[in-house]
Amino acid sequence: MNDTLSRRDFLKLGAATAAAAAVGAMLPPKVAQAAYTAGLVNAAGDGYIPSMCEMCVWRCGVLAKIKDGRVVKLDGNPEHPHSRGNLCPRGQSGLMNTYDPDRVLTPLIRVGQRGEGKFRKASWEEALDLTASKMQAIKDTYGAEAMVFSSTHNLSQPQFENLLYGFGSPNYGTQRSLCFNAMITAFLLTYGIEEPSRNYKDVEFILMVGRNMMEAISTSETSELSHAIDRGAKLVYLDPRFTKTAAKAGEWIPIRPGTDSAFLLAMINVIVTNELGDCDFVKQYVVGCESLPAAMRSYTPAWAETITGVPAATIDRIAREFAAASHHAMVHPGWRTSNFVNSFQTERAIATLNAISGNVLTPGGCLSADVGAEGAGLGAPPQPPYPRLSALRLDGTPWKYPLVPLKLGVFQELRDAILTGEPYQAHGWFIARQNPILALPDRTKTLQAFEKMDFIATVDIILNDTAWFSDVVLPEASYLERFDPLLPVDGKAYIRQPVIEPQGEAKSALWIYKQLGERLGLGDYFQYEDEEDYLRQQLKPLSASLEEVKAQGYAEMPEEEKSDEITFNTPSGKIEIYSETLKNAGFSPWPTWEEPPAPAEGEFYLLTGKVAQHTQFGTQNNQLLHKYSDEPRLWMNARTAAGMGLADGDWVEITSPVGKAHTQLLATEAIRPDCVYLTPGYGHLSKGLTTAFGIGASDSALHVTYTDPISGGQALSQTFVKVSKA
Amino acid sequence: MTEITHHAYLFDAVRCIACRACMVACSTENNIEMDKTRIWQSGVGVKGEFPILQRATMVYHCMHCNHPDCLSACPVGAYSKRPDGPVEYDPKKCIGCRYCMNACPFGVPHFDYDKGLIEGAFIDKCTFCPQRIDVGQEPACVATCPTDALEYGDRDELLKIAHARIAAHPERYLDHVYGEFENGGTSYLILSHVPFSELGLPDLPETPVNEVSEDVMALTIPFALSWGAVLSAVAAGVQIANRRSAAKAKVTEPIEAKPEEQTK
Amino acid sequence: MKMNLTFHPRFRLPLLAWILLALMGAAFVIAMVRYAVGIGAISDLSNAYPWGWWISFDLFTGVAISSGGFLMAGLVYILGVEKYRPLLRPSVLTAFLGYIMVAVALLVDLGQPQRIWYMMIYWNHTSVLLEIGICVMSYLLVLAIEFAPVVFEGLRWKKLAHFFHKFVMPFVILGVVLSTLHQSSLGSLLLIQPTKLHPLWWTAILPIIFFVSAVAIGLAMILVESSLSSRYFKRGLEIHLLEKVAKAIPIVLATYLLLKFGELAWAGDLGYLFTSGVMSVLFWAEILLGVVLPLIWFSFKRMRQSPKALLAGAILLLLGMILNRFNVSWFAVKHSDPLTYVPTFMSNVTYIPTLPEVFLSLGIFSAGILAFGLAAKYLPVFEDEHSQAHAPGGD
Predict the structure, then answer these.
(1) Distance, CA of C73 to CA of C89 (rounded, Å)
(2) CB within 8 A of C145, min separation 6: which ones?
(3) Looking at CB atoms within 10 Å, which of A185, A223, A262, A386 has the fewest?
(4) Mean pLDDT for chain B?
(5) Is A625 in CB contact (< 8 Å) with chain B?
(6) Is the CB of residue A226 less than 8 Å away from at least one CB of chain B?
(7) Rounded to an integer, what distance in angstroms lies between the CA atom of residue C201 and that of residue C328?
(8) CA-CA distance, C186 to C207, in Å (whole number)?
């Protein structure tokens, strides 16, 4: 299974595929031919092909440099609004995901015990037949709901959802509750939109609450923030850690974890008590502004000081600076906002602060609620309506979590249902582009849930931990080898297209889902001949041909008509600082303070958070990123460490209520004394990852499952750990 | 962009977020082996005491000096300086002596310690991406930089930009552009908020470090010729003197002359 | 050992020769590994430490201790001091072998040893290393010519020996010029490191200082070599000649001391003498061992007339001066600061020579000693064509 290739010269790594290429050379090279016809590559096959990055969900435009039929370099596409010619380190290293010597290049069927990593190669025919027959058997025996489907945000997701809902299962696991449920539910309830877009053009004051923009890079937004700071905009940054964003901030406030909402509520208190907000705007568009001062009365800066540890004067000053910047101020909505069970309240406070500053929808305002839905304006293959779902969702949406949208779900709650068999027993799990073993908190519990499964199939490009524990692995073509549905951004529909032929027998998700669908008798949900046909059907409402789109990288979309009337997609049509919906569900209608638990004596907050070189747990095996990453260690405040007799580089044992992990210590000044930080996504179990295996410790082995009852978000910073010398 | 007569980089440590996209870009653009790099991050990192902290890191690669020390040191002329800035290295000439590595005050040239005779062990360093700049593209590291911490352009233009940036934000920058004069001027110009030594840059005079070495080398031929002439003259003089005394000795003690030399 | 088989079973070699052969064999294996998989496989050299043991020991020390050859050649041929002729041939042989050893070591240290001749065709006139390369290669040729008569005499090709002897003068002058150049240029080699070499050592007059110390080293080497070979080959010691050689040493060392401290004073670097920690200690160690003590030692006539004292004093001087060569080319050279580096393989800023590195040098050195022994045994090294022929030292 494991390739024993040297890791040296990545171009030489093609040895893995040399044999395949030799066979492929007999066939007409479709990609090269198409690119040649489009004038993108010359007769020798060298040139640039536009496509779209998939190293994170920001989806920058890339120009893939092709030489001798191989991708040799990725440049940011200057014409794409998300990249503007730049790429982050992950984007730059994307070709090493494709040329990873650990790529799975044929379907695999497990022959040993689960987790042993013993697989045999199989044909697509056999693997698909096996997967479909197992799924059908589970459906026939236990009902469609006994199959769990899970997948993380990606462009082929509409077809994944067709498979799941066509099959008839309500059990849909997404990454969202591990990521941005708090933000999305808060903004849906307040503004009627999932996530406001940010405008840095005229911004003068930015407050970021743990949005580590300089490390959790969204290329264009990181760039805009950086330029705003260069221009003189002030960034105030709340984070218990001195991140690279903290280093660029005008003011870094190492606030006590879990108390962001107290800080923000006190800011609201200062603004409304002193009438510093944009009154005209507030009165016209906001529900609850009259009663807001009363509702916020108790949240004084002095009160917040006792909770956050930030001096009242500082909070007061920052509130006034924010208010003074008026429409040119923003509190960034954040992104991975799954920190504490009160993260929803933090997001509500952020939504409120932005509302009373009047920056939303005001010309030149820094936030915009004017966000189109994904895929709007494009065509789609015809399909029948889904069968009616009668079974409850195993994750408790919405019967336990009434305010969590079905699209988001509460993924981490799924396992208890699997382990208890309540309200019914799940028997199979189909996973695509997702790695629940490392994604979900409490890895032990996830592995136990896996053991309960009769059948697990995983679609991935490498043997990540989840694939390692699966029964069937279906090899997907990497993002440089396949088509995905078009993605509209700012009035253009951008294409992801193969820039090289898929290696081995890897296939696109669109193909895999269709094949499975047809075998399951769901062919009506997959009415496209192949990937190109799918894209042609998408392009139907537009005037562009697929050939033009391939050559240009995008299709122009007709201008959307914009009405001057400002309305919000909420029950009242206004911004709801006061929410009846929340009240009716039994929660506080106002943004409110909820005290989260705190670590006991001798325990630390376990913090995680991105580094610029990695996306969750999917890129650690990328040799280029591995080369330029810091060793993943456990950060601890240098003085705290010294007090505990721990030195930099010492091996330590980290103990949480659900697990243990071992790693080396990084004694640093860059973290609060009551916190430790672990680079997430390491500590892989799969020996099929020759670069990543054996490196770092797993945060998911330590994280305890805590779910916010309102948003369903997992509280990832609420795990408290003990640290001792290993 | 104005026409570039002297290619140069401008690095701004205040803007750099140490994301290392430049490093990955360089690695792929130039097909660098997995255990090598032409570009790296240096600096003291986080400094200060919690919670009063600062970051000091920079992106380090060849400075493309105006008076390159590698070029001065290389015995076989494997280095050359393009009139428009880049310092180039020709592996076809290199004998692998590594004197350039000793000469470079920045520690830039790297050597293939892992290569035997068949593969060939060479020096590697930043080339300034001639394959890109010669067709009007930015070098790979610059092109990808999301925060414009790395910029590329004509040296004079970049110097103007750098000084203007300092003037616009004197509270943010040290009032010095590293590389404007250091080591006789470099084509990698650096702006910083912390002392340059904390970024890992050497404290260098405005004269290139190769100056004394080159001055001494210039004396070699004249010295060799005159020293040879002096020695020849001495040798000739001594021989004439010896012959005379030998002739005298021959007259007085014709038989004993020879064995004298081997007395013990 | 495997090597036994390659020799005739009845051919008896003394123990020392066996040890030398074993060391040579080890060095050969090490060199083959290096040629197969690279310098990194056998050494601790790195991008932070491009030069190490081989440069300090084989090049700097090797060249310095081979300086007896040009001194004797100059003394005998140019200054016509014929009475030193008995010391000439061993000195020339030592130098010849010494330079061959340097060249062999460099063939291991160079990344592209097969290209060493590029120095003859690609000239970069600003490179000190080019000057050294050309001088050393040319000087090897000169030494070969100077030593040729000995070989031809040994082979009893008298005409050829006489021919070489007759035209030796211009080559001697060339040899002295080349030696002066490269002995001093080894110092110049470090001129390009004003920011890396500690100010106690870096000075613009490094070449002059190097030349003067090379003279002192050469004189000491003549003493050592004569003493040792007289013991090993059971020959008489030319003590009256050696005494005069020893007498010159204090004068050279005094000059050296004057230059060294004069320059430090002039450059205003005297402060570093006591304030640079380990560097100050290293400086004083080399000055005391290599300069001050020998200067005093050889000022006493009694010391100069005792064979044992001559040897001891010379060894003292050599130790100090070799330390000087190590200091200048290694210990006092500051490499990259240990700041944080990414990627982490950039952070290797320590250097400790590996056993293979040292054994490679020992192997080459062994070959030199063996070659000297064989030459002394089979060639008229210890006689001059003017002297009566002894039987070449029998067993």
Answers:
(1) 9
(2) C164, C168, C171
(3) A386
(4) 92
(5) yes
(6) yes
(7) 6
(8) 7
Instruction: Give pTM, 2 decimals.
Output: 0.92
Would you tell me the crossing angle of helices C206-232 and C168-188 to the nearest 10 degrees? 120
Angle, vertex CA B64, rays to CA B59 and CA B65, nearest 5: 115
Q: Which tokens hold the place of C316?
A: 């003292």
State whether residue C80 sits within 8 Å of chain A by CB.
no
CA atoms of C91 and C172, how far apart (whole Å): 13
DSSP β-ladder status, A70-76 and A61-67:
antiparallel
Nearest to C251 by CA among C207, C304, C188: C304
- CB nearest B144 (choices: A86, A624, A625): A86
Which of B28, B113, B169, B198 should we substitute to test contact with A (largest number of A Cβ atoms within 10 Å)? B28
Question: Which chains have 3+ CB pairs within 8 A of B?
Answer: A, C
Q: What's the one-letter identity of residue A368?
A: S
Q: Which of B97, B113, B238 is nearest residue C78 as measured by Cβ atoms?
A: B238
Q: Is C343 on the interface with A (CB under 8 A)?
A: yes
Q: What is the pLDDT of residue C168?
A: 85
- Looking at the DSSP assignment, which residues form a beta bridge with residue B48? B53
CA distances from B252 to B246, B248, B261 (A): 10, 7, 17
- C-alpha distances out from residue B133 to B6, B85, B141, B143, Å: 11, 11, 12, 11
Mean pLDDT of C111-127: 94
ipTM of this predicted complex? Answer: 0.92
3-state secondary structure at position A189: helix
Backbone angles phi, psi at A644, to 5 degrees: -95, 5
Burial string for A545-572 (b: 16+ CB within 10 Å, else e) reads ebebbbbbbbbebeeeeeeeebebebeb
For chain B, what percentages of helix, strand and coil (3-state, to nearest 5) are there? 35, 20, 45
CA A405 to each of CA A172, A342, A431, A706: distance values in angstroms, whole numbers, following the listed order: 12, 18, 21, 18
In this complex, the residue of C37, C177, C191 whose CB is nearest that of residue B227 is: C177
Among B123, B40, A6, which Cα is nearest to C348's? Answer: B40
Using an 8 Å Cβ cutoff, are A204 and A323 in contact?
no
Q: Where are the beta strands (DSSP E) in B130-210?
A: 150-154, 188-191
C342 to chain A: which residues are within 8 Å by CB?
Answer: 628, 630
What is the rounded radius of gyration, in angstroms, for the C-alpha atoms of chain A? 25
Instruction: Please choose, from the candidates C200, C224, C195, the residue with its C-alpha nearest in 3D space to the C-alpha of residue C66.
Output: C224
- Mean pLDDT lowest among A134-138, A545-549, A604-608: A545-549
- Phi and psi at C99, nearest 5°, equal -70, -35
- The answer to whether the Cβ–Cβ distance between C123 and B242 falls below 8 Å is no
| B140 to chain C, closest Cα gap in Å | 18
Write down the pLDDT at residue A372.
Answer: 57
Q: State which residue of chain B sits closest to A225, comparing Cα positions.
A: B147
Angle at A513 between CA A511 and CA A515, to 5 degrees: 65
Q: How far apart are CA A293 and CA A274, in angstroms?
A: 9
Q: How many angstroms away from the CA of B221 is the closest CA of chain C? A: 10
As a 3-state breakdown, chain C gives helix, strand, coil percent values, each rounded to 5, of 70, 0, 25
Q: What is the CA radius of gyration of chain B?
A: 28
Which of A443, A450, A440, A510 lies closest to A474 in space, CA to CA? A510
What does the buried/exposed string (b/e) look like for C41-70 if buried means 16 or more CB atoms within 10 Å of the residue's CB? Answer: bbbbbbbbbbbbbbbbbbbbbbbbbbbbbb
Digit-coded pLDDT (tens) for B22-63: 999 999 999 999 999 999 999 999 999 999 999 999 999 999
Task: Judge: C384–B44 Cβ closer than 8 Å, yes or no.
Answer: no
Residues A92, B24: C-beta atoms closer than 8 Å: yes
pLDDT in tens, C49-83: 999 999 999 999 999 999 999 999 998 889 888 88
